[in-house]
């Protein structure tokens, strides 16, 4: 009445191999991403979901940073001020300030310094046209007559521009903190953090 069932070894081997091929990548993915561990800790000692935790580090070079800054400048056009940034061993801001019916060329040169995740651009040379002027006067002139983003703060009395990088929100409430800016060594790095 009942026929004995023949086991097909090839079919069994095929399904066993199929299960291994499907299961192993998921297992490896879980191990590599920490998905199988309930108490994984990031290298800094902070829990991954904790407030202000560094998620990852972004490494860049001068050319990449220059391109990123100039793209940002182009997207926030200013009718009175046109400028661009060039980065060598210093940061140079070159542009034209529109006054009445003419454009006055200007050039500012800065040395960048990292301060608590923000960037201080310490002024080293200022020119308005071809004339070297007192730096505080030119910085005051730019501060009064231009509209920079809220996170760019011109401080003429300190002869610097403060870039409040940590207040710039990027995607999904994340923000950047400057880690290192060493232009002569072409070393620029930022950490990406999760906001509140």
Helix content: 25-40%
Class derived from helix and strand content: alpha+beta
**What overall geometry do the principal axes of the alpha carbons give?**
elongated
Distance between the termini: 71 Å
The fraction of residues in strands falls at 35-45%
Tally of DSSP helical segments: 3
Main β-sheet description: 7 strands, antiparallel
Kindly state the number of beta strands: 10
Rounded radius of gyration (Å): 27 Å
H/E element string?
HEHEEEEEHEEEE
Q: What average pLDDT do the residues reach?
A: 75
Number of domains: 2
Question: In terms of topology, how is this protein built?
Answer:
Elements: H1 9-33, E1 54-60, H2 62-75, E2 81-87, E3 91-99, E4 102-115, E5 118-128, E6 131-132, H3 135-145, E7 152-155, E8 160-163, E9 174-182, E10 187-194
Antiparallel strand pairs: 1-10, 2-3, 3-4, 4-5, 5-6, 5-8, 7-8, 9-10
Protein name: DUF2140 family protein
Transmembrane segments: 12-32
Organism: Sporolactobacillus shoreae
């Amino acid at each position: 009445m009942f026929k004995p069932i023949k086991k097909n070894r090839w079919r069994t081997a095929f399904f066993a191999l199929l299960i291994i091929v499907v299961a192993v990548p998921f297992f490896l993915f879980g191990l590599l991403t920490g998905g199988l561990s309930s108490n994984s800790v990031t290298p800094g000692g902070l829990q991954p979901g904790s407030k202000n935790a560094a998620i990852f580090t972004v490494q860049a070079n001068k050319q990449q940073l220059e391109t990123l800054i100039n793209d940002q400048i182009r997207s926030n056009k200013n009718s009175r001020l046109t400028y661009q940034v060039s980065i060598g061993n210093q940061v140079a801001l070159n542009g034209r300030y529109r006054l009445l019916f003419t454009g006055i060329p200007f050039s500012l040169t800065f040395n960048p310094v990292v301060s608590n995740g923000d960037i201080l651009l310490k002024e080293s040379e200022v020119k308005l046209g071809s004339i070297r002027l007192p730096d505080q006067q030119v910085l005051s002139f730019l501060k009064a007559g231009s509209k920079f983003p809220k996170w760019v703060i011109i401080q003429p009395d300190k002869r610097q521009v403060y870039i409040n990088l940590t207040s710039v929100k990027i995607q999904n409430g994340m923000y950047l903190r400057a880690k290192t800016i060493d232009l002569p060594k072409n070393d620029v790095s930022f950490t990406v953090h999760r906001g509140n």
